[in-house]
Amino acid sequence: MLEAHFIIFLLWAVMQSLTGVFANGIILVVNSIALVRQRRLASLDLLLSCLATTRICMQVLIFSIHLVALSLVKESVFIDNFLILMFVNELGLWFATWLGVFYCVKIATIPHPIFFWLKMRISKLVPWLILGSLLHSLISSGLQSNYMWSFYKGVIENYFSKNRTKTEDTPSEPFYIFIAGLIPPLLIFLVAVLLLVFSLGRHTQQMRTMGTRDPCRNPHINALLSILSFLILYFSHYAVTILFCAQIVQFGSFLFLLCVMISGAYPAGHSIILILGNAKLKQNVKMFLLRGKCCQ
């Protein structure tokens, strides 16, 4: 790698990691202060706090991948923490999926008994969804450590090996099992996004037909832009994960470095989108930053 590329990639990795930790840290601190003051935490804030916690862990682990890619640390550091990375990644994807479902249920208007039932009970279901996601990720990681660790370890060692074998030499069954485990949250999130887009599109068309101005138009558009932006990051993260496990990209190549950069942009970018798209969170962050300046 050229020295200029090395420096640029290192600076990008540091900036990306600091941005992600800072953005998610602010979400966590703001909600923690609200919990201390009010003695309770709203369902959305609880979900955001859990998501921010996984994002901070994910950002630190992705930074370690950056260091390995730059040959600043040994690959054994990444191998030793790989199962933790898989657990945090899957848990974060489920939390992000439930966040998309929460926005969809709260904002969308769909005349169906099941959807109406969810709208009335989604806030009470959030703690159970969080607990279920945690248990599912723990069980999934445990099974992967017992039955698929040899596959993961082979993929990682194959990346860092100087005598890299062909992709065809790697067993395909564990790879398909891994992909199958990623499909459920992706499908749930995709359905939630499509329902939200359909509902908001129909609502906007009705307002235009009636010739009235919708007072909720701007918040709805902000929520829609937020979830669509997240959809792009969500799919990008999935694509990068599949490319890595399929060993399509070569270690040290430009495509490999680009994929690592995209992986780091996912937890950092979506957290910034959440802050900018959530009026309550955005206001609390402004107050938090202003108080921080006053204390200096």
How would you characterize this protein structure?
29% of the residues are buried. The longest helix has 38 residues, at 173-210. It is built from ten helices and no strands. It is 84% helix and 0% strand. With 296 residues, it is mostly helical. Helix 4 packs parallel to helix 7 (173-210). The model has no long low-confidence stretch (mean pLDDT 77). It has helices at residues 3-38, 43-69, 75-80, 82-107, 113-147, 149-160, 173-210, 217-245, 254-277, 279-294. The chain has a single domain (3-294), classed as Rhopdopsin 7-helix transmembrane proteins. The radius of gyration is 21 Å and the shape is globular. Keywords: G-protein coupled receptor, Glycoprotein, Membrane, Receptor, Sensory transduction, Taste, Transducer, Transmembrane, Transmembrane helix. It is found in: Membrane. InterPro entries: TAS2R (IPR007960). This is Taste receptor type 2. It holds the Pfam family TAS2R.
Number of strands: 0
* CA-atom Rg in angstroms: 21 Å
CATH superfamily: Rhodopsin 7-helix transmembrane proteins
Largest sheet: none
Q: What is the succession of H and E elements?
A: HHHHHHHHHH
CATH topology (level 3) name: Rhopdopsin 7-helix transmembrane proteins
Give the CATH class: Mainly Alpha
Helix residue percentage: over 70%
Q: Give me the secondary-structure category.
A: mainly alpha
Can you count the helices?
10
Instruction: Estimate the strand proportion.
Output: under 5%
Shape from CA axes? globular
